[in-house]
Amino acid sequence: MATREEISMVGFALVAYAGDARTAALRALNAAEAGDFEGAEAKLDEAQKDINEAHNQQTQLLSQEAGGAEMDVTFIMVHGQDTLMTTMLLIDQSRYMIRMLKRIKQLEDKQ
């Protein structure tokens, strides 16, 4: 059984990794808006690396629970889950928006 402290520590890790990923995704959007698509892709790669780390933390607890371990829900874990999921969505949306910004740039360059 994971202790409340262990669960909370995973929650803190989720917030930290997902928070870093969120920052990188927003920087990717800013870079793309400025026309720096290489920089945007690099920031998206950074965001993906951080979100993968957060997901790995989450998976460890999910595996324990699937194996029958009892889990106490802590507020920080709920916050970590929320941060993880919203950041995953932000990364997906950032990829889409960056593709659209590239297309807009290509169309503008043709004129």
Automatic annotation (TrEMBL):
<dbReference type="GO" id="GO:0046872">
    <property type="term" value="F:metal ion binding"/>
</dbReference>
<feature type="binding site">
    <location>
        <position position="82"/>
    </location>
    <ligand>
        <name>Mg(2+)</name>
    </ligand>
</feature>
<feature type="modified residue" description="Phosphohistidine; by HPr">
    <location>
        <position position="79"/>
    </location>
</feature>
<keyword id="KW-0598">Phosphotransferase system</keyword>
<dbReference type="Pfam" id="PF02255">
    <property type="entry name" value="PTS_IIA"/>
</dbReference>
<dbReference type="InterPro" id="IPR003188">
    <property type="entry name" value="PTS_IIA_lac/cel"/>
</dbReference>
<feature type="active site" description="Tele-phosphohistidine intermediate">
    <location>
        <position position="79"/>
    </location>
</feature>
<feature type="coiled-coil region">
    <location>
        <begin position="37"/>
        <end position="64"/>
    </location>
</feature>
<keyword id="KW-0460">Magnesium</keyword>
<keyword id="KW-0963">Cytoplasm</keyword>
<comment type="subunit">
    <text>Homotrimer.</text>
</comment>
<keyword id="KW-0813">Transport</keyword>
<keyword id="KW-0808">Transferase</keyword>
<dbReference type="GO" id="GO:0005737">
    <property type="term" value="C:cytoplasm"/>
</dbReference>
<protein>
    <recommendedName>
        <fullName>PTS system lactose-specific EIIA component</fullName>
    </recommendedName>
</protein>
<keyword id="KW-0479">Metal-binding</keyword>
<keyword id="KW-0762">Sugar transport</keyword>
<keyword id="KW-0175">Coiled coil</keyword>
<keyword id="KW-0597">Phosphoprotein</keyword>
<dbReference type="InterPro" id="IPR036542">
    <property type="entry name" value="PTS_IIA_lac/cel_sf"/>
</dbReference>
<dbReference type="GO" id="GO:0009401">
    <property type="term" value="P:phosphoenolpyruvate-dependent sugar phosphotransferase system"/>
</dbReference>
<dbReference type="GO" id="GO:0016740">
    <property type="term" value="F:transferase activity"/>
</dbReference>
